[in-house]
Amino acid sequence: MRLVVMLGKCKQPEKARELFQAMSDEGCVVNHEAYTAILSAYSRSGLFDKAFYLLEEMKDTPMCHPDVQNYWILIKSCLQVFAFDRVGFFLSDMAS
Length: 96
Known about the structure:
The protein has a single domain, classed as Alpha Horseshoe (Serine Threonine Protein Phosphatase 5, Tetratricopeptide repeat), CATH 1.25.40. The protein is 74% helix and 0% strand. The chain has helices at residues 2-9, 13-25, 32-44, 48-59, 68-80, 84-95. The radius of gyration is 13 Å and the shape is globular. 28% of the residues are buried. One of its GO terms (molecular function) is mRNA binding.
């Protein structure tokens, strides 16, 4: 999963996601760090819909539930593009 994290940090979210999915399909354990790296890469690359979908996927994955850091990544990205309506959604989602 370290390679997934590195690809995510190098702003290659699609490659990171492909590797992540391939490893998951082969039975590798999915971890929170890999999800966070891909979420961050999607957000930095302006792929917000994919980032939001990934957040929902995290909620359904045991031991990978979104934390404050994950929400902060998304909130910060929304603020940068003036998507204030989504910020409210994330704040309320985080509270529940």
